[in-house]
Design brief:
- Helices cover about 30% and strands about 20% of the residues.
- Strands 1, 2, 3, 4, 5 and 9 form a six-stranded parallel β-sheet that branches. Strands 6-8-7 form a three-stranded antiparallel β-sheet, with no helix packed on it.
- Strand 3, helix 3 and strand 4 form a beta-alpha-beta unit.
- Helix 1 crosses helix 6.
- The radius of gyration is 14 Å and the shape is globular.
- About 35% of the residues are buried.
- The structure holds flavin mononucleotide.
- Flavin mononucleotide (FMN) binds next to helix 1 and helix 5.
């Protein structure tokens, strides 16, 4: 049976809330929550399906809790892994870098051979540019707590249903 993990920093409040919504949506007690700040290569590689929470901080950069693991990630063979990214960003506050963290992480994972799933439409968002876009589609789930928080639940629920199919 395929093993699934949701990885995010336990020190984040908003990312953590979305991680919990996603876990609840799966209604599957075998899905493990893991702290991004304590993840190791061996643990990461022990999962077939991985959902990662990646906010954007610092004007278009990854949050610093990923800094320690990214160099390790850049050495891993992720062939055969299906990975889905959910990102948090603020399209009004940072319209030129909306959700860039997802694009940065997507690039790292694809370079290492992972198959990315969970792409979503960019309709309904307003921003100038985003590294998370490929052919006008987000390479993951885009959550904007600051400006569209009332849509979080609906967006997360629809994404989980999409992932159930794409992970199958
Ligand atoms: C200092 C700072 C810089 C930020 N930079 C960006 C950015 O470049 N792009 C973006 O989309 N969001 C940016 N954000 C918004 C955060 O991604 C957003 O607030 C998110 O909900 C944070 O989630 P977290 O608290 O779980 O890390 C920034 C927020 C702060 C406080």
């Amino acid at each position: 049976m395929n093993k699934t993990a949701i990885i995010y920093s336990y020190n984040t409040k908003k990312t953590g809330k979305i991680a919990t919504l996603i876990q609840e949506g799966f209604e599957d007690s075998t899905i493990e929550m893991l702290n991004a700040e304590e993840i190791t290569e061996d643990i990461f590689l022990s999962f077939d399906h991985i959902i990662m929470g990646v906010a954007t901080w610092f004007d278009g950069e990854l949050p610093n809790f990923w800094d320690e693991f990214v160099p390790a990630l850049e050495e891993l063979d992720l062939t055969g892994k299906k990975i889905a990214l959910f990102g948090l960003g603020d399209q009004k506050g940072y319209p030129e870098n909306f959700l860039d963290g997802v694009g940065i992480m997507a690039g790292i994972l694809e370079t290492q051979g992972a198959t990315l799933v969970g792409f979503t439409s960019s309709e309904g968002y307003e921003f100038e540019s985003s590294k998370a876009l490929r052919n006008d589609v987000f390479m993951g789930l885009a959550i904007d707590y600051e400006n569209q928080g009332s849509m979080n639940q609906e967006r997360a629920a629809a994404w989980v249903e999409q992932l159930k199919k794409e992970f199958a």
